[in-house]
Amino acid sequence: MPFAVVLILLVVGSLVFHVFSPWTFTPLASNWGMIDFTIDITFWVTGAVFVAVNLFMAYCVIKFRYKKGARATYEPENKKLETWLTWLTAVGVAAMLTPGLFVWAQFVDVPEDAHEVEAVGQQWHWSYRYPGDDGKFGEVDAERISADNPFGMDPDDPNGQDDVLVMHPEARVPVNQPVKFLLRSKDVLHDFAIAQFRVKMDLVPGMQTYLWLTPTETGRFEVLCEELCGIAHHTMRGAVVVEEPEDFNAWLAQQPTYSEINARVAGNAAMGAAQYAVCAACHGPQGEGLQALNAPKIAGQSAWYLKRQLQNYKSGARGAHPDDTFGKQMAPMAAMLVDDAAIDNVVAYIQTLPDNPPQVTVDGNVANGEKLYRVCSYCHGAEGQGIQAMNAPRAAGMTDWYVARQLQNFKDGIRGAHPTDFYGFQMMFMANVLHDQQAIDDLVAYINTL
Ligand SMILES: [Cu+2]
Questions:
Q1: C-alpha separations of 430 from 122, 364, 372, 424, 440 in Å
Q2: Whose CA is closest to 402, among 289, 279, 244?
Q3: Rounded to the nearest whole angstrom, what is the distance from the C-alpha of residue 126 to the centroid of ligand 1?
Q4: What architecture (CATH level 2) is domain 115-263?
């Protein structure tokens, strides 16, 4: 009897939960209402079967429970019942599968007027490419991928010169126009998914896959990598911003093309030296860092990372959190660098500064720190040297008290929580594996040995 009650409660509980659950679908923002319809049918069919089977089981448990002296009769065949069950099952399965076939037929049939965006996945972030004014993508080849050519573009292909390269994980598309996402992976399997659009597709190294949709709402929608196998795919967050065509065109026009990126002049260290005079007050004349002023060592840090941080401080992606006491001191300094050329120049100057080892100020259990560092090494390198392809900066040989504070800031959401701080966001997930101050100290003590 208690078992029958449990079965009935299970059914009632599941139904109540389904109706009142806080986990509902995100509002639909694309043309794929058919996919919701398919899922609804599946819910109805499997829900009805679930209720029927479990209630039948409860009924049997009650009806045929042990009675003294009662004997069961053996009745293996029942033609009528079997015919009924076969037909019901066939109808149920067909009801679940048929709409899926219709949706799939539409899913692989891309409208002629769809414009194209390429989404490139790599461990662990997204970047995007638009075909430019000629509407044609240039040739790419995985063999050509390098730090200077992250898309593997063919420098001699005329179609590629006007390709627009978006190096960060936020793409934009115009509302109410069909868009085809071409999907390419540089390394392992990834999966491009946007909940509000109801679409997802795997990225397979060595081949190009695609999906298409027509966004019907403006807004910012999160891109998730829904690949399960491998570490850190959950940190591969990005976004697709859907906006009015005018806004989209204005944005696209501002993005650099492949040939513009190639034509960029390197920063001028001599001009940067003048700008650095201000920085020296806090970061020290040699960029060695001054703990008394909470300013870290920046000499010896990679140029790409310094540039991105200065841009983040300027745009408010970093240093704008109300509790970010030290970031707030830095943000107005970055604002003094008027344009990208000024940033390039000062960074070029910082690259000329000597890379002296800083004083060690943090100690902890190195053996424990080594264990904790294992996961970090995927992105920051076994020697803590930093890996540009992972967007992860150098951590070894930098000011240790600053590294410790950043980990705490990531943990507390003081750094990395801004919606356009794409890479800081990733670190926020990672810092959460460090449970307390002791873990941070142990880890930093280990980094000090690298
Ligand atoms: Cu992934």
A1: 18, 20, 11, 10, 12
A2: 289
A3: 9
A4: Sandwich (2.60)
**Separation of 122 CA from ligand 1 center, angstroms?**
7
How far does residue 172's CA lie from ligand 1's centre (Å)? 20
Instruction: Note the pTM of the prediction, 2 decimals.
Output: 0.78
pLDDT of residue 340: 85
Give the model confidence (pLDDT) of 251-295 as tens digits: 999 898 998 888 877 788 888 988 898 999 899 999 999 988 889
Distance of CA 167 from the midpoint of ligand 1 (Å)? 16
As a CATH number, domain 358-450 is 1.10.760.10
**Boundaries of every domain in the chain:** 2-66+78-107, 115-263, 266-356, 358-450
Q: Give the CATH class of 266-356.
A: mainly alpha
Whole-number Å distance between alpha carbons of 359 and 357: 7
Task: Give 183 Cα–ligand 1 centroid separation in angstroms.
Answer: 12
Distance 114 CA to ligand 1 centre (A): 25
Residue 222 C-alpha to ligand 1 middle, in angstroms?
Answer: 14
Report the pLDDT value the prediction gives residue 24, as an integer from 0 to 100: 85
Give the C-alpha separation, 434 to 447, whole Å.
14
What's the token pair of residue 48?
A: 């009805």
Residue 229 binned pLDDT confidence (cut-offs 50, 70, 90): confident
Q: Distance (Å, rounded) from C-alpha 315 to C-alpha 43?
A: 45
Ligand 1 midpoint to CA 185 (Å): 9
| pLDDT tens track for 335-354 | 888 888 899 999 999 999 99
Is the pLDDT reported for residue 64 higher than 90? no
Q: Do domains 266-356 and 358-450 have the same CATH topology?
A: yes
